[in-house]
Amino acid sequence: MEKKKFNFKIPHTYVLLISVMLIMAALTWIIPAGQFDRIEQAGRTIAVPGSWHSVDANPQGFFAIINSIPRGLLESAEISFFIFLIGGAFTVINETGTVEALIYKLSQKMAGREILVIPIFLFIFGIAGATLGFSEETIVFIPMGISLALALGYDSIVGMSIIASGAAIGFSAGFLNPFAVGVAQGIAELPTFSGMGLRIILFIVLWIVTSIYIMRYATMIKKDHTKSLVYDGIPKNKDTSDEFIKMNKRHIIVGLIFLGGILTIAFGVIQYGWYIQEIGAIFMITGIIAGFSYGYGPSKVADLFVLGAKEMIFAALIVGVARSIVIVMEDGLIIDTIVNGLAGTVEGVPGAFSAIAMYMIQILINFVIPSGTGQAAATMPIMVPLADAVGLTRQTAVMAYQLGAGFMDSIMLTSGVLMAQLSIAKIPYNKWVRYLGPLMIIWLLIGVVFLVIAYYTNYGPF
After folding, report:
1. Low-confidence ranges of the chain (pLDDT < 50)
2. What pLDDT score was predicted for residue 381?
3. What is the C-alpha separation between 278 and 264, in angstroms, rounded?
4. Is the separation of the CB atoms in 21 and 330 below 8 Å?
5. For labeling, which of 12, 30, 141, 371 is most exposed (least CB within 10 Å)?
6. pLDDT tens-digit map of 211-221
7. Whole-angstrom distance, CA of residue 456 vs CA of residue 353
8. Which residue spans traverse the membrane (predicted)?
9. Nearest by Cα to 35 from 325, 323, 329
């Protein structure tokens, strides 16, 4: 008899997320409840080292579990509505054909050198991640990156990588990242952005390694499209030069309006500390002005905006579902217990291994606290005295945090940003993990090497 081939099908993304949430809910019945005392310091709520204490358990039952989903949607509303706004604005801009015309122009300019687009875009978004803390903001550029990649003969994975992975390596190196390194150094009482030299070297290494990795994959699938991990789910690449829109004066005007919007956002983030709400507002008005400038009437712009927002429903909802996992752990009072238990394992670990242990702990904690700033506020007050006790410099502890909090966001199910990016790109989570997995291992090993360097050079100033 012919044996039946067993095919394991990865469940739907919502099923995966809810499964993780149910596991966390079950752990609230097993892991002892506990909390740190917290104080306000420089406008932030931080945990007091050594203050963990048991509290009455609050295991999450059936109603708490199902209620966590609407609560997650509510608490992540800022990001969800941000996604709706950029979806609507980008659809208006995209309908003008400006992005398509620009991509066609770029593809002509890069004829025979298409592969260079990869390191160029990685560098641009890497700098944005390292200086502006780009994370949620990358969602805006995912459709553009995919359009560019397809036009150059690659696939949607390459398109997402040049945007998302670029921002990820920049965020992880974080030499001028105010939202992660800046906060962590403030808690550690280090000079802001001190130790920048080693972080810049780290960024360059990550940029080179990531560029080579993506370029190898891109070259492989350009030679044989059937080797693309998303070959069955995307339009087959072909010569579409006759189908592209040729650039005209209106496209140039819309392009300048879009560029003006991006520059305004960059200025606002640097000068005034703008975040999602302000960025969404600027992008919304940019899309509206672009539509009017192209000659669309108010009703046409409104119709396109609604259409674009509708296409983002899956991405916007998934952010809320991912947030519900954290809500279950917070309400079950097990996050502080997990942090305290993991931090305690660093004590007694000798030499450079203590830095690596701290790094691994931050990676594990990142799963339950996916926010970079939130993880800094929750863990650095614990890790700084631990670093002092085991003979690590505080700067090394900050690097362990930034690497542990940065890399895994590119692959974790609990990352609402990643889930939104994949939804917009229409890339199945299992295909993304299969693609990024080897690169993730390389990133993690690079992190180990740099922490060993930090240990033996007494990375400081202290």
Report:
1. 1-6, 237-243
2. 74
3. 10
4. no
5. 30
6. 999 999 999 99
7. 11
8. 12-31, 79-103, 115-134, 140-160, 167-188, 200-218, 252-273, 279-297, 304-329, 399-420, 432-456
9. 329
